[in-house]
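WARN retry 2 of 3 for item q-0093 after timeout on previous attempt; input resubmitted unchanged.
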Amino acid sequence: MKARLLFAVFFVFCAACAHVPVPAPALDSSKSCETCPPCPASTASLASAFAAYTEEVLAGVLENLRLMAEDPRVQTGDFAAAKPLLSGFQARNPFLTFFYCLPDGSCYQTETGLTGKNLSDRAYFRKLLEGKEVFCRLVVGRVTGLPTAVIAVPVMKDGKVVAELLASVSLPALNAMAANALALPEDMFFFALAPGGTTTLCDLPEYIFEDPRRLPNASLRAAMDNLLSHDEGEVCYVLAGFFRKVRFLTGKKTGWRYVVGVKEAAAH
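OK item q-0093 returned
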């Protein structure tokens, strides 16, 4: 089953690396990257592993939602009937908050019931009402208040949308999972950017949901513009007196740029 595959990927990935990340220092825009050294070969394999792990976790959530949407209990449009199945999924996936929603926008949280919140004004919810899936739509959760990647599917019966299954993936929780799996040495770091530039994952969690191009660092801004305009490659910038050479690639499912880098040497 998909859940077992996810755990297998997680443990294989954890075994591939063996160090612990630490925070990077503060910003410094006073240096240039004219003499930036080459990117270490290890960053390519680590960026690939980072992407594979995260994409597999998120795609696994979507696949599980699709399977549950086919269950007759879920297709009743009755939360009470669907709850036993949904509660099991929630228990196996603590990094997300699971909701059963109705076409009017009302939603039930798996463990606490009716939330009192309405999602009918969310753009992604209108997409669900059209019978379309939603994958990794970035929002601040209306119920959780957390930076979130929404994954959701419509529940169809007799050609009509009768309910919606919605997984609110906590980016801080997913970030902790990725950091634990990567286990980078202290001179390395990671982050991921959505196509629009929003930070979705980062070894400095306080930067999640920030666009690094808005920070006061011309070197960083130019590097991120370059990174977001290519599917894969290497870029360099200077941060807090260190050259930051990074390797990145684009996830085929999310479109996120997955980045692993190293503080190479003091910039003078």
